[in-house]
Structure formats: C-alpha cells, structure tokens
C-alpha cells in the first residue's frame, strides 16, 4: 500500500493561471473605468450646455410673461375696457368665420356612407390649440352603417377619434336610429 507523503514545506500549487486571469480581469476593469469616466465627463459638459440653454429660455419666458402682464394690465384699465371687449368680440367672430362650412360638409361627404344621414351639426367649437370640435347628430335605418361611419371617421386624415355620446332608437315620429357624435376636425385655421 502506498501512502502519498509530501515532504516539502509548502505544497505545490498551480497559481500562475489564476494570477494571469486576475491580472487580465483587473486590466479590463481599469479600461472600463476609464471609458466610464470619460463618458461621465462628456455628459457633464453636455448637461452644462443644456442647463445654460434652459436658464436662458426661462429668462426669455419670464421677460415675455412680464411684457404680456404689462400689456394685459394696460388693456384691463377702465379706459380701455371697451376696446378690449370689442377686440375680443372681433377675434371671436374672425375665428368663427375661419371655419369653412363648405369644407366641413365636403369632408363629411367623403367619409359618410350612403345610408347614413346627417341630421344636425352644431356650431363648431374651437379650443385654445386651434382644434375644431364638431358635434353632430347622425341617423340610419340600422346601427351597422353608423359603426362603419365611425370607423371611417377614425381612419380619415381629416378627422380624429370619434366619441359617441348617446343614441336613440326609432320612434313613431323619427324612423331612424339617432346617434350624437363629436369628433375633432383637422381644418387648418
């Protein structure tokens, strides 16, 4: 029977591959650290430029807001109240006149199926972003053509998503299914 006995004061170990792998890993991590530090420095420079632009734009916004407040204070004076009211009235009239009814009906005709009737269109409303909102009542002999009309409104480039507010079944006086629909209209003002 053989018993392995090591008479050396330190047993033999294979440390060279472990030391090489550790050295290679340390070098790779050092290179990655340098790359990350350079990216951080570049990002700081870019962020500084962005912060400077934001500060400049905020200063411009503050000066424009102060100028607007000064002008509005001038317009709100009692002596200028009649001019302001007249200006608001004329602006509202011009805004309403800028909506072309002929164009609205032509665009509706392009997307409306033949078996759907336009019963009522209310005066278009214009929001602060110059978007025109059409509120209308449509009717048909059955609900299916109105569903087709709503799909065609949504796929049309002139109209946005349609909202169905309510519906009414046929009655003795009105033989059509009636639907109240509102939709954003993309007419340029």
What's the pLDDT, averaged over the residues?
85
Which CATH top level class of the largest domain fits? Alpha Beta
Oligomer: single chain
Spans of 5+ residues with little confidence (pLDDT < 50)? Answer: none
Question: Could you explain the architecture of this structure?
Answer:
The protein has 189 residues and is α+β, with helices and mostly antiparallel strands. It has two domains: 15-75; 98-185, Alpha-Beta Plaits. The protein is 53% helix and 19% strand. It contains four helices and five strands. The protein has helices at residues 16-75, 81-97, 101-111, 143-155; strands at residues 116-121, 125-126, 132-140, 159-168, 177-185. Strands 1, 2, 3, 4 and 5 form a five-stranded antiparallel β-sheet that branches. Strand 2 (125-126) and strand 3 form a beta hairpin. The radius of gyration is 37 Å and the shape is elongated. It starts with 15 loop residues before the first helix and ends with a strand.
Chain-wise SSE layout:
Blueprint: H1 16-75, H2 81-97, H3 101-111, E1 116-121, E2 125-126, E3 132-140, H4 143-155, E4 159-168, E5 177-185
Antiparallel strand pairs: 1-3, 2-3, 3-5, 4-5
Attribute tags:
Alpha-Beta Plaits, single chain, alpha+beta, 5 strands, elongated, 189 residues, 4 helices, five-stranded antiparallel β-sheet
Short description:
The chain is an alpha+beta fold and 189 residues long. It is built from 4 helices and 5 strands.
């Amino acid at each position: 029977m053989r018993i392995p006995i090591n008479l050396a004061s330190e047993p033999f170990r294979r440390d060279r591959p472990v030391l090489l792998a550790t050295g290679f890993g340390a070098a790779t991590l050092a290179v990655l650290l340098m790359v990350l530090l350079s990216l951080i420095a570049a990002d700081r420079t870019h962020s500084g430029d962005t912060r400077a632009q934001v500060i400049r734009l905020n200063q411009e916004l503050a000066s424009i807001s102060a100028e607007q407040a000064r002008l509005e204070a001038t317009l709100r004076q009692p002596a200028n109240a009649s001019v302001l009211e007249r200006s608001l009235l004329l602006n509202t009239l011009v805004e309403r006149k800028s909506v072309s009814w002929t164009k609205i009906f032509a665009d509706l005709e392009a997307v409306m199926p033949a078996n759907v009737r336009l019963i009522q269109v209310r005066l278009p409303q214009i929001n602060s972003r110059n978007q025109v909102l059409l509120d209308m009542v449509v009717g048909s002999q059955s609900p299916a053509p109105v569903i087709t009309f709503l799909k065609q409104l949504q796929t049309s480039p002139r109209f946005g998503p349609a909202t169905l507010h309510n519906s009414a079944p046929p009655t003795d006086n009105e033989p059509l299914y009636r639907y109240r629909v509102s939709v954003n209209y993309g007419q340029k003002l």
